[in-house]
Amino acid sequence: MTTPAQDAPLVFPAVAFRPVRLFVISIAVTAVVTAIAAYTGHPVVGAFFGVGLLLGLLNALLVRRSVESITARDHPLKRSMAINSASRVALITILALVIAFIFRPEGLGVVFGLAIFQVLLVASTALPVWKKLRTGAPSGLETGPGGVLTGSEGMEERGTGDD
Fold first, then answer.
1. How far apart are CA 80 and CA 71, in angstroms?
2. Most buried residue, 43, 72, 87, 105, by most Cβ within 10 Å?
3. Where in the cell is it found (predicted)?
């Protein structure tokens, strides 16, 4: 028997999210982009690009905070997570587009910064996980913040004909 989607528990795996590392990487990328933009005669684009990176970092921090607060409840609802995510992304996107419109064309750097931050976020979280999987996955389940199960659940041995 399967559990209906609305009755299924919310489970979020812990992610190798390091905001300080992402902040330092964002500063370095902003410096490089600003130097390149200054060389082409548009240094303000680099500054707006940095604002976009910082907005992306703010979004990531808010995601972590909302996941921790929602999963800490006795009965977390997927609907509250979806509404939280949609409203947060909408607000940050509208803010970025307003900046891009008011300070056009240089303000478009904010939108590019947001996009590049997503690439940095995925790379900075996926690479440590990938490295851990290559060196040996954890043998059991671990409990992360808020009692969230992490580890190798659902990672049973599979044969070549299982696909």
1. 10
2. 43
3. Cell membrane
Prediction pTM value:
0.68
pLDDT-derived band at 145, boundaries 50, 70, 90: low
* Cα–Cα nearest to 140, from 149, 131, 128, 132: 149
Torsion sign over Cα 63, 24, 111, 126: negative
pLDDT over 50 at 16, yes or no: yes
Q: Token pair of 28, please?
A: 């370095």
Rounded to an integer, the average pLDDT of 92-99 is 93
Residue 147 buriedness (CB in 10 A; 0-12 / 13-18 / 19+): exposed
Strands 149-151 vs 141-143: parallel, antiparallel or unpaired: antiparallel
Helix (H) or strand (E) run with residue 149 in it: strand 149-151
Residue 53 and residue 29 in contact, taking contact as beta carbons nearer than 8 Å: yes
Q: Is 142 helix (H, G, I), strand (E, B) or coil?
A: strand
pLDDT at 152: 43
Q: How far apart are CA 151 and CA 101, in angstroms?
A: 44
Q: What is the largest CA-CA distance in the chain?
A: 64
